[in-house]
Amino acid sequence: MPTATVIGASRGIGLELVRQYAAAGWRVHATTRTPDAPGALGDVHGEVVLHALDVREKEQTAALARALAGESLHVLIHNAGITDGGHSRAEVMRVNAQAPIAVVEAILPAVARAHGRIVLMSSQMGARQGSRASLGDYGDSKAALNDAFRARAAQWATHGVIAIVIHPGWVRTDMGGRSAPVSVADSARGIREVIAALTPARHGSFLTWRGEEHPW
User: Fold this and answer.
1) Is the four-CA dihedral 63, 34, 16, 24 of positive or negative sign?
2) In the chain, what are the domains?
3) For every one of its 216 residues, what pLDDT tens digit does the chain have, with 9 covering 90 and above?
């Protein structure tokens, strides 16, 4: 049975990714800050294992790594993130730019065992496209994530994994808003198709949910 882990799975794209992978017969490890009150995540049919994780907490990250120590993960998707509304710049950077790298590196041995795929959820708002001006706290956090990913991609490749950052589209989620043109189901489906089609030649890329190259 193929196995996936979705970090940040309580709602939106993360929740839909869990639904779709589970419906396709995958075993899915899904993280939420409140596994005792999982909400819609608790209603997903299939083999879904819930884990407590606040990505800001090093002890919880270490506990998740221990829980997955015996697994071979075919797919690891880091979806957890926050907007800049109501959060300080430092907190946005911590959650969106620093935590994904720390979580991936903690779980990397389990992905390496399966020669799996690693996907970090980025955004078109983090694309500098040559500019060093501020993109706003959220955009700056995603640009910083992209930078951190590019700095580590070559080293991660030595573990036999294929890793990318991805723009999920402008999606109708709590974060994206009701006017966004892309449905959650379509975005998740597109991301899964991109992951399934990944080859070593695309390692280290910034892609869209449609599989197109995105400018850095």
Assistant:
1) positive
2) 3-208 (3.40.50.720)
3) 999 999 999 999 999 999 999 999 999 999 999 999 999 999 999 999 999 999 999 999 999 999 999 999 999 999 999 998 889 999 999 999 999 999 999 999 999 999 999 999 999 999 999 888 999 999 999 999 999 999 999 999 999 999 999 999 988 887 777 777 789 999 999 999 999 999 999 999 999 999 999 999
Q: Assign 32 to helix, strand or coil.
A: strand
User: What is the model's pTM?
Assistant: 0.95
What is the layout of strands, in order, in the sheet containing 48-52? 48-52, 27-32, 3-7, 75-78, 117-121, 162-167, 206-208
